[in-house]
Amino acid sequence: MGIKVGIIGCGSIARLRHAPEYKDNRHVEEIVFFDRNFERAKELSKQFGGRAVEKVEDLYNDPSIVAISDCSSNDAHHIYSTNALLHGKHVLCEKPLAISVEYAEKILDAQRISGKKLMVDHNQRFTRAHQKAKELIDKKELGEVLTFRTTFGHRGPETWGVDKTNGTWFFRKDRSFTGVAGDLGIHKIDLIHYLLDDEVEDVHAFHGALDKVNELGKPIEVCDNVVCALKTKKGRIGTASFSWTYYGSEDNSTTIYCQNGIMKIYQDPNAQLRIEMKDGTVIKYELEPIQTNENQTKSGVIDSFVDAIIHDKEPTVTGEQALATLRVIEKILLS
Fold first, then answer.
1. In angstroms, how far is CA 86 from the centroid of its own chain?
2. Helix 186-196 vs helix 128-138: angle between axes, to the nearest 10 degrees?
3. How far apart (Å, rounded) are the C-alpha atoms in residues 134 and 125?
4. How many C-beta atoms lie closer than 10 Å to residue 299's C-beta?
5. Which tens digits make up the pLDDT trace of 223-280?
6. What is the pLDDT of residues 69-109, one digit of tens each?
7. CA 54/CA 245 separation, integer angstroms
């Protein structure tokens, strides 16, 4: 007997990631869709063989629905995720967990009250190259980590969103709030926390709306570029850049500089993890290409979330971990 799940928000992230991965999971027997635009919900229900509901309360009040994916816009996460948890549902929330630390803490309070599982979709933890890199770092195969450099940039959400328009909610302050920092940057901050088993503590950053315009041709209300210097609690220092204006191929790469060599992650298309040792030795790991907007591959997030529910395990990315990452994004935007 499988479980029934709900999806709130039927945009691109639901259509390309959540819905197909739930459909492919053998433990999931039905997906129930809700969107403020009922036609979108109906469209996904036809595409993935589920059903659509007109009111979000129909998800909350259905005792047969065990878990909900919150794929709404950033400004609504603290509403939908909190209500879902308080109605006894396990929740997988899209990133960022909320538009502010204050709102994120409300979601965590709801999770503690409900006793249900809260997982956040920081999917970079699931790639084989990042997992192998973490294994080598944990074993100190290259000695201690000293510094790091990470970036995530592509052509912008107007090329990815469901409507493919400059009117995308990602460009609106009242719905996005965090711009590229909360869209792409939050992934890389979480990745650094994961790889280094550490937390960014100090931030110096520049950010701005350098090129993107809205549907009226005016500069967008949130940042489209961020460049920052970071220092962790354990004293590692590094740089990070996040952009919606990389008008070529997507860049989702990371370099970890250690005492005895360098790790280059997702820089060589034929060796997703490349190790360059101090003595000149080069070790190449051919693992898997990273998921991009143009190359939608299975993320592993849904399988991990369902597994945590079925086997009553702690989620791979907890609410507390997502909150720690959001604290850094807030510091970046206030810097």
1. 23
2. 40
3. 9
4. 18
5. 999 999 999 999 999 999 999 999 999 999 999 999 999 999 999 989 999 999 999 9
6. 999 999 999 999 999 999 999 999 999 999 999 999 999 99
7. 37
Q: Which residues pair with 69 in a beta bridge?
A: 7, 92
Determine the residue type at 49. G
In sequence order, the 6+-apart residues with CB closer than 8 A to the CB of 249 are none
Grouping H, G, I as helix, E, B as strand and the rest as coil, residue 55 is coil
Structural contact between residues 54 and 27, judged by C-beta atoms closer than 8 angstroms: no
Length of the chain: 335
Tell me whether strands 237-243 and 145-153 are parallel, antiparallel or unpaired.
Answer: parallel
User: 109: which 2 tokens?
Assistant: 């309070």
Going by DSSP bridges, is the β-strand pair 254-258/261-268 parallel, antiparallel, or unpaired? antiparallel
| Cα 234 from Cα 152, distance rounded (Å) | 24
Query: What pTM was estimated for this model as a whole?
Result: 0.94
Total Cβ atoms within 10 A of residue 172: 18
H-helix or E-strand spanning residue 229: strand 225-232
Domains of the chain (ranges, CATH numbers):
3-121 (3.40.50.720), 124-294 (3.30.360.10)
Query: What's the rounded Cα separation, in Å, for the pair 320 and 63?
Result: 27
| DSSP state, residue 139 | T
- The amino acid occupying position 308 is A
Give the integer Cα–Cα distance in Å for 261 and 275: 7
Q: Give CA–CA dist 141/106, Å, rounded.
A: 40
Q: Of the candidates 190, 155, 191, which has an alpha carbon nearest to the alpha carbon of residue 170?
A: 155
Partners of residue 204 on adjacent β-strands: 229
